[in-house]
Structure formats: structure tokens, C-alpha cells
Amino acid sequence: MERIFRTGGTTSDPKVSFYSRDELHRITRQLGDTLIHAGLQPGDRVANLYYNGELYMGFLIQLLAWLDTNVPYFQLPISGVVDIEATVWPLREFKVTVAMGMTTTLIWIAEYVISLYSGEGLFSDQTALLAKAFPNVVVRPLMYGSVDGGLIAIPTHDADLESRAGAPVYVPNSPNVVAEILREGGKPITNEEERGILHVTDLSRRLMPIIRYPTGDVAEWVDFSRKQFVLRGRDLIGFKIGPASYDFRHLREIVVKTLGSDNIQGFQTVARRKNGKDELVFWIAGFGTNRAEGYENLDKALKTHTTQYASGLAAGYINPLAVGWIDVKDLYHNPRTGKLRETVDQRF
After folding, report:
1. Measured distance CA(255)–CA(231) in Å, rounded
2. Regarding the domain delimited by 147-234, which CATH topology (the fold level of the hierarchy) does it fall under?
3. Residue 113: helix, strand or coil by DSSP?
4. Which Gene3D superfamilies does the UniProt record give (predicted)?
5. Per-residue pLDDT reduced to its tens digit, 287-308
6. Nearest to 200 by CA among 229, 225, 165, 161
7. Which end of the chain has less Cβ packing within 10 Å, N or C?
8. Which CATH fold topology does 2-101 show?
9. Could you tell me if 64 and 28 are in contact, meaning their C-beta atoms sit under 8 angstroms apart?
């Protein structure tokens, strides 16, 4: 028996991943262990706020993990797609002690509770908002994983180590997963503090083999001998703005079709934080015609051709698209190779 799950993304052609029954069961058992590692206590009342439906994986595997966890706890299958009143009511009624979900969902709840307005990574401004809404809150990453990669790594929850690294520190989900950080060209990185793209090999997957699979995340070793690493944003192809993943190639296609290739000398996407929320920025060189009209056309095209930009905007998760009209020389280039960087993540 097979299970099919949809990966994240914003285009109308989502990718899917395939798991056998045994492979999925293995992940839910491991996930049950990560819950305990993250601090789950007997008798905890846990709100499952992950997204469900449309072949998404998160909500379902948390339900299945409940069956495979040795610690007895209560799970409230609320999901992350109901309205705010229906979300907050069971949190209060059942005095929830643990909330599991996307950062955006937790911030959304915090905003409602304290009547504030804010803005996925978990940034310092978001941590402050959560602390204000929930004074005794302890914020911890549950795991590092994806639909394609499965359960990739487990957080150390070592406060001293995380303080020195400035971010959560992870170790691969061994012996099932082998993690490598690779330079451009595919050469492995073994020294600390050099960034590269994290690739994973899952030694247990057979139905859909995962071999040196690029996760799309930039990482660096904190301690290579212990295989401890931190994440430093997204790579050159994709990144997250709020809860949605964006593919550079898809964004470039939108820009070229909207403005015309003859009008563009250079294009770059930037992810940044502004007023407590993520913001997608297009830096465009060479476009000298009506820029106000160009912006309106780009914003309209982005809403039409991505599935989550408009909804994220309407929900207040992200800022509106920003466009910078600049000279080619002002675009970011790789200082080592001189190559134009397709995306720049200014949030880390």
C-alpha cells in the first residue's frame, strides 16, 4: 500500500512524494521520539495546528505519531485551516499546554489573543510577540523535515550550543539519514562556518529513493565531527516568504512574461523582513518605461500565477510585493566568482 503526499509550493503544478506503508510508519515512530525529545510530558494537552487536506502531510503524521508515542498525552486535531475563533476556543476550553504548527499559525493566534498585527523561520520579532501573548512560552523546533526528505534531522535543544550558533542546532536522523553540505559543483564541506547547500540521503526509502537530495536550504557545520549543523536560509532556487515556498525560476518566468524580456537587463529576488513580516522584493535592472504600471502588472500577475501569495497577503502573513528598479551594477554578485546571485535572503 502506498501513500501520496503533496509538497509545498506556489505553482499550479505541485510535486508529490510517495511513501510505502512501512516507510510512513517508520517516520511516525521517529516523530513520536522527537516529541519526547522536544519536552513532551505525560498528560500534556497538545493542539495539532498543522495544515490538512489537499494531500498535505503535516497534520496526518502528527495524528499517526500520537499512536506511536510511548508518552500518554491528549491530542486536539484542530488543524491550521479553520478560522481564528474555532482555533482559539479549544485552546482555552481544554487548557492546551503544547501547540504544534507552522510559525505563521502560532503568530496568527498570538495576534488575535493580544489584538496585535504581525507577520515563517522564526525570527526574533516573532519570538517577542509570542512571549507577549503567552508569558510562560517555551519555543522549540520539533524537527527539521520535508515531504520529500522525510524526517531529516532532530534539534539538539542545547541552549549553550544554540546561543553560540545563533540558531537551533540539528543532528541528522541517523542511522536512516546521511546529511552532507555541498559547495557549488558538488564538493562536500567538512570545515565549520562555511555555508553550502544541505543534501540528504535516506537509507531507508525504497519506493521513492532519496539520494543526495538537495533540501533547498543553506547550512553550515557547527561541529562536523558530531554532524551538528545550523540552517542559514534558503538556496538560490527557492525560499519561503511567510508560509509559502517560492521558486526563482517560476518568479522569473512571471516577470519576463509581464514586462517583456527585451526590457530586462537583470533580475534578482530578495527576501527580507519589514514591520514584523516577510517581504518578497523584485530587483529589476533595465526597465525604463512606466514603472508604476509595471509594478501594478507584476503584482496582478503574481496574484494570478501563484496560489499562496494572494491568500498570504489577505491574511496579513506577508507584506505586499516590493519592486526596486536599479542598475545592473547594483545587483548582488557572488564575491568569489562574480556571478549574479539569483536570490538574496536578507533575513539571516
Report:
1. 29
2. Luciferase; domain 3 (2.30.38)
3. helix
4. N-terminal domain of ligase-like (3.40.50.12780)
5. 777 889 999 999 999 999 987 7
6. 229
7. N
8. Rossmann fold (3.40.50)
9. yes
